[in-house]
Amino acid sequence: MSGSRMDRARTESRRAETPVTPDPLDTAASVDDNIDRSPRDEAGRDVGSTAVVDDRPRRRLVRGMSPKRAVLLAMVVSVVALTLAVPLRTYFSQQSESDQLAGANTSLRTEVSELQSKVDEQNDPAYIQAQARDRLQFVMPGDKAVVMQFPTPPAKSDEEKRAERRAGNAWYTNLLDSVSTPVDR
Q1: For 29, 40, 82, 83, which has the most beta carbons within 10 A of its beta carbon?
Q2: CA angle 175, 179, 184 (to 5 degrees)
Q3: What is the mean pLDDT of each run of 10 residues along the chain (185 residues)?
Q4: Whole-angstrom Cα distance, residue 103 to residue 96?
Q5: Residue 40, SS3 per DSSP
Q6: pTM tops 0.85, yes or no
Q7: Is 29 exposed, middle or buried (0-12, 13-18, 19+ CB in 10 A)?
Q8: What residue spans of 42-157 are helical by DSSP H?
Q9: Which residues contact 52 (CB under 8 A, 6 or more apart)?
């Protein structure tokens, strides 16, 4: 029996040594912890009222910030956001316009270089000579000019013209025409 008494004494001493933490589910401990202790005057009387206030969720949301400060902070953030919204929108629109103008500038530079190459080509005496021979049918002294004349094709009959026009139409137009016009016999 003396052994069991010693075991009980050891467990009780261990319990006394370990710090007791309040259980968060224990309502009595949480009510005592959440009592709003208002300041007292020199005589020990309460200056304010004592009431049980559980403001743990509110403290978690704003982390010790009063509601007035939270509203003020929200207003300041919204004013700053609204103040920055217009200049940011302007910046992005000007940036896209700048990109478009840069693309147009690049295409204009390529067009200018193509036109410059045409001007350089047209200033070449060999090109001028070749164009004069082709377009104006000029010949150099000592050359013989030969002009080829091809006969004109015969005129098409009305039936051929209608067949070409019918072939150029869409299939549903030809279908509608075949159903709506009577056959000539």
Answers
A1: 29
A2: 110
A3: 64 59 50 53 61 52 77 94 92 95 96 96 92 87 86 88 89 88 73
A4: 11
A5: strand
A6: no
A7: middle
A8: 56-62, 67-122, 125-136
A9: 31, 34, 35, 36
